[in-house]
Design a protein that fits this description.
This protein has one domain. The chain has 90 residues and is mostly helical. The chain is elongated.
């Protein structure tokens, strides 16, 4: 649920940024923002979170929670980078 709320926030963030700079396709940029966020989140789940949880899920709940939520952090970080690198320079 948290990921969905963040995805909506990313879409609105990209859409409003594109509107504010006068970009003619703000909806496209909203979709790009969500795709970047979910792409990183999916890659993190497949390549880091799932193997870690299979291996160490009995070791520490705290580390498991941190590893799980790092995907969200990395998704937001890459979305921020894409916004800064391409959207603001479009």
């Amino acid at each position: 649920m948290l990921g969905g709320i963040i995805a909506i926030a990313v879409a609105v963030w990209f859409y409003r940024t594109a509107e504010s700079i006068g970009n003619p396709t703000p909806l496209q940029w909203g979709v790009i923002g969500v795709a970047v966020y979910y792409g990183v989140l999916a890659a993190w789940t497949v390549f880091a979170n799932t193997p870690f949880m299979e291996e160490f899920h009995h070791t520490s709940k705290t580390i498991g929670i941190i590893v799980h939520y790092l995907g969200i952090v990395f998704g937001l970080a890459l979305a921020w980078w894409v916004r800064r690198r391409w959207l603001l320079k479009a």
